[in-house]
Amino acid sequence: MRTWFITGCSSGFGQRLAVAAAKRGDRVVATARNIAVIEEMAEPFGGRMITLPLDVTDPAAARAAVAKAVETFGGFDILVNNAGYALFGAIEEGAPQEYRPMFEVNVFGLIETTRAALPVLRRSGGTIVNMSSGAGIEGRGGGGYYHAAKFAVEGISEALAGELEPFGIRVLIVEPGPFRTDFLGRSITIAANEMPEYAATSRKPYRQTNDGNQAGDPDKAVAVILQAVDAHDAPLHLPLGPAAHAIAERKLAAFRSDIDGWRDITIATDFDPV
């Protein structure tokens, strides 16, 4: 039996992963800003799932939730940083009161929760699952703030993988493409200052067209995450779904083209030998 600590369990992958882990017999610490939303979810599992309030932007709340998890279960083996949401809009359209809170949740919330959990994980080893996105692989117009947040998650996760390997802690970066959760509904905000100059690159039509029509089955995605957590040979990067794989392949090809096209010019920048 393993023990999970999961943020953002009020909906989407966080909720589905918490239920799937509990159904297979694991213990789960499910957290959300509004605990009333998730209390009913825990009822079928008795004491194997507890629910705790956690606003990931509050470092004291993260420490308190971790302490309660240790008090209840003695610790945990798997941390899932799932809490997050997206802001769509061109960079010029965004306002600080819109994009700063998103970074507080998606980036700094992940950092604070991870920092609170690391003393527990360093004692026992385990796995950190950081929910990134296909948006963390490639940036596109109309979603720059969200891309930047998920790019930060990727960089933090890669650094953690190197720092934590000596402690027997693995890191798994999950990069879903479009899956049929309510992400495009309740987890998306649109910059209020919509400028006609950016209509051609707006992501708003994508939301309207794809919400509820995504090709990805979230239960199949959760099954893959569980399999990767259990595997001894899990990759650092886990793109989920054909769209995420296509994004990764496109990014790799574009990066290779840039590197190869200017290789001779860009490597000729060292001091000349004396």
Give short descriptive properties of this protein.
single chain, Rossmann fold, seven-stranded parallel β-sheet, 274 residues, two-stranded parallel sheet, alpha/beta, 47% helix
Structure, described:
With 274 residues, the chain is α/β, with parallel strands linked by helices. The chain contains ten helices and nine strands. The protein has a single domain (3-242), classed as NAD(P)-binding Rossmann-like Domain (Rossmann fold, 3-Layer(aba) Sandwich). It is 47% helix and 16% strand. The strands form two sheets. It has a seven-stranded parallel β-sheet, with helices on both faces. A two-stranded parallel sheet has the order 5-8.
* Cα Rg: 20 Å
User: How many domains is the backbone divided into?
Assistant: 1
Query: How many strands in all?
Result: 9
First and last CA, distance: 63 Å
> What is the succession of H and E elements?
EHEHEHEEHEHEHEHHEHH
Adjacency order of strands in the biggest sheet: 3-2-1-4-6-7-9
Which CATH class is shown?
A: Alpha Beta
Predict the CATH topology: Rossmann fold
Shape: globular
- Please name the CATH architecture: 3-Layer(aba) Sandwich
Instruction: Point out poorly predicted stretches.
Output: none
Task: Compute the average pLDDT.
Answer: 92
- Helix/strand/pairing class, anyone? alpha/beta
